[in-house]
Structures are given as C-alpha cells and as structure tokens.
Records
---
Amino acid sequence: MSKIKQLTDQLVDQIHESGCSPREVLARCFSAFVPSLRIFEHRKPARAKHYLAFIRERPCIVCGSQVTIDPHHHGRHAMGEKTDDYRCVPLCHYHHMTYHDRGFAGDLEGWSDEDFLEHTVRLLVLYLRGIEGT
C-alpha cells in the first residue's frame, strides 16, 4: 500500500470520527490531484482561519524553521486566486518567496506537488486529531 493511500485512509478515518463531511473535505483537498473529485471547481474556495493558524504554528517543511511561517496554498486554482485553505503547507517566508519566484528550484529542487500533497494529508490528520482532543 502506497504512503499516500495509507495517509488518505487514515485521514478518512479521522474525518469520520470528527463528524466532518469526508466527501467535502477530501474533495476540496484532492480535487487538484484526483479528477473524479472535481465537484467543487466552480465554488468559492473554502476559507478556514483556524486551520491557517494551525499551519502557521508548524515548522517549514523544507528547512524546519519556525520563524515567519507562511501557509503556501497549492493545487489547482485560477490565476490570482488561492485554492482552499485546507490545501496548504507551512513554508518559511524565504522558501515561500523562493517557490513563487522560481518554482521547484534552488532549495526546493527535488520537491514536487506530490510532496506537498503528502504533507497536506499529514497536516490534516494532525489537525483533526487536535480537534478530537478538545
């Protein structure tokens, strides 16, 4: 079983246990990567200030820095728009600007959208576990 499949199964379990709608959360998270889930393409992106605050508390996924963390939104979206807040990863300001200036170059060479997706799934699982604990 692939790492992403295992993480996705774990995420589905966590979402189910938290009482959230798994179809909506997963569709929003994975619509850029799984064409069959593109049911929200024409809706406004989901905004979640509480989730962005959670992301800002995490270390940069590239260098581990915990200073000036920016939530980097990734996945399919229109020019000038962000994707859903649930599709983001924590990047320090330096790596966030580097990505927007040069893409997967420099320190981000060797990274891919799949790597961002894997971290997104891990973060969603961690976030949902935290919600259950409150």
Note: The longest strand covers residues 69-73.
---
Amino acid sequence: MLRNLLRSGIRFLFIVLSDFDVKGLENIPSEGGVILAVNHLSRLDSPLIFMLLKRGDATALVADTYQENSFFRWIIEAVDGIWINREQADFQALREAQKYLEGGGLLGVAPEGTRSNNGALMQAKIGMAYLAEKARVPVVPTAIYGTETISNKLSRLQRPKLHVQFGQPVRFPPLKQSGRSKRLEKNTNEIMCQIAAMLPEAYRGAYADHPRLQELLQHKEDPPTATQLDTPQTSGIIPNNSIRNIHAGRQVTNRAFQRAAGS
C-alpha cells in the first residue's frame, strides 16, 4: 500500500512539473530477477525510474550516505532499498542484492557508483556485472538524461525535459575461472557502451571513443540484413528472445503514460 501511494505521489509531481519522454518500457521483463543498469546524474534519477515501473518488487542499491537524510531514508526503506558502502567492497550488501535477485526481484544499480559531476559517463565498476554473473539474471541497460537540469529549470519556472530509454535485456554466458576479471570488465563495458549508445554525444564521457560503442552506433545507422537478423551477435551475449517484447521501439510520453503504466 505504502509503495503504491509513494509511486502515485511521485508520478503526480513528475507529470505536473516536467515533460518526459520514455522509450523501451516494454523491454523490462514482467517478472523474474533482473538488473536495471542506469547512468546517474541526479538524486531524482531513482524516483523517476521508480514511478515508471509497473513491477511491485522494484528496489535499488543505494549509497549509505543517504541514511543521513531522514526524508530520503524513509523513501528508500519504504521500497526495501539495499544500503551499500561505496567507499569499500561491501560484500554484505552484494550478498543481500544477490539474494534479492535470486528471489525474482528487480534491482536498480548505478554501475558508475556515484553521480556524475559533469553529466558525462564515468568509468564504471564491475559490481553490476559481478551481480549479474552470481545471480544469473539479465541486465537492462538504461539511459537517463535531463534530470541534472531539474533544479535549474524549476527555479526559472521552466518545465525540464527528461528522457529515459530502456534497452533490450542482455544475458551474459557463465564465466570460467580463468580470465574471470577481464571478462567481468568486458561485460561491464558492454552494458556501459549500450547505455552510451542511447545517450546524446555530450553525455558519453569515458566511453565516447570505445570501439564497442562505435560498433553499436554503426549498427543503429545501418539497417540489419536478413543474415544479420538470423545470426547471433559475437560479443559474448546470449540472445534472450523470451524476455524481448515484439513491440520494441514503442515510445511513451507523459501524455500517454497512464495508459502505458496500467493506471
């Protein structure tokens, strides 16, 4: 009950105070463990993502520094957020997150570990890829931008334009012990490059010149041939058609959001 009331209140504020454009909401699996890997620009990223999701089991890994703010602490605990100490390897939090994913929950993770101070992507840590490997769950790359302008825009009595795009779920093959660290890094780069490919050029930061990003951008520009459509990708990703929706690419705006969110 509290979760639904909280989502409704947050949704109302975003609809009234902002314009937002949402793509790929149908790419989020309706059930089962899944990680939403999201770039991080603002304290309002998490509330925006939370109010868009229809699933009732959505939570996130949250920096324990937010415990100092009683309002944020109340909100995070209301949605069963998992506190993590980002200053060290917090294995207790990772075990709790793994257990949540294995139990079929949806977990939001910021692979960069903290908010970007200039809006551009920072080099990500391997924690997200580690969790995906341990819990054997897919990852949905999620790109967000515009939230970093909210305070400035509202102070000028302007409605900020917010953008969220959910990519196709990615499921990585099991890792062998040999070369495991390098593979986790490669999996991390794959997700970050997929996020970068959904962002405007100015936001791509540390991944702007990554070869994998260039491949993804080229693929977006060139329509796939029949052979490409029938051939699995060679990046080490297992195609996961069971969690893809045939209506990929549908756009959802705030004017149509209530219909898309099932409200």
Note: Residues 120 and 203 are 4 Å apart (CA to CA).
---
Amino acid sequence: MADSGPTEALSSTAPPTGQLGRQFWRLWTSAGLSNLADGVLKIALPLVAIRYTQSPTAIAGLAFALSLPWLLFALPAGALADRLDRRRAMLGANLVRSTLLGILVLAVALDAGSVGLLYVAAFCMGAAETIYDTSAQSILPKIVGREQLSRAMAGSSPPRSLPTSSSGHPWAESWWQRALRRH
C-alpha cells in the first residue's frame, strides 16, 4: 500500500481524543451530498428513459446498468483506492460524474438523447460512484485517530445509506412531478 500526497499528510492531523474533527465532518458532508445525488439519479434516469421508450424492461435495465459496476469494479476500485491519493480519486470520480451528467442533460435538452446514451451514462456514473465510495471509506483511517475509527465508521454510515434509500427518491419524484406540471 503506497500512499502519497495530501492523504499521507492527513494522518498527522488527527483530531484530539474524543472528537472526530473538521476533516471527518467535511468528508461526511461530501459523502452525504454525493450519495443524495446518487439517490436522485436512480429515480431520474428511469423517468427520463420514459421519454425514449415504453419498454419496462429497458427502463428497469437502467437500475441494473447503474449497479453493475459495483459487481465488476468493487475489487479493482479498492486496489485503486489503496494505491492512489484517495482525496484526488474522490474529486476525480465526482468530476467524471458531473461531466457525464452535464453531457446527458445537454443531450436530453437538445433532443439528442436515447436509451443507449442513458445506459452508457448510467454505467459510467456507476463506475465513478464505485471509485468515490470506496475511496471515501478508505480515507477514514487517515483523517481520524485510531481510537476514533470505530466511531467514525459508524458515523459515516448514514450519509451512505439514507440519501440513496429514502430522501433521494422523494426529492427526485417531487422534481419530476413539478416538471410534468409545467408541460
């Protein structure tokens, strides 16, 4: 395991005993917002697909395309997280996801979208999500002291699970309903 760059410096800035520290809460917020976006995306992609197809199988396949990278890339993403600067890997993954989403929004707005494009975007965003989430989990030991690691691991669970399972879905549904009312 070779660490380099800013990640290595994080280990020396562990907060005092009893506190998780500012870096942990920045990571917690970042992971929460990133996973909220994942939850919205999991609802929005199939809703956008309705514009291009009425096939329930094709629409449901988008959820599969978004999740398939976890099956294919979880182990390689872990290896990358061990070898790369985790902070940069997280930033890069979110930059890739933002770029893909921007391209997808532009394509849909210009009526250049298709189900195939949605599948490619879903798969690529899922792959980037795999790298981001793996790196976010792997960076925790570097930003909290050893005595706080179990507390930090437990505290990092809500921003990973809640947005994708509960709050992201209602947000996406409410945005979709507003969009339908305008048309």
Note: The chain has a mean pLDDT of 79.
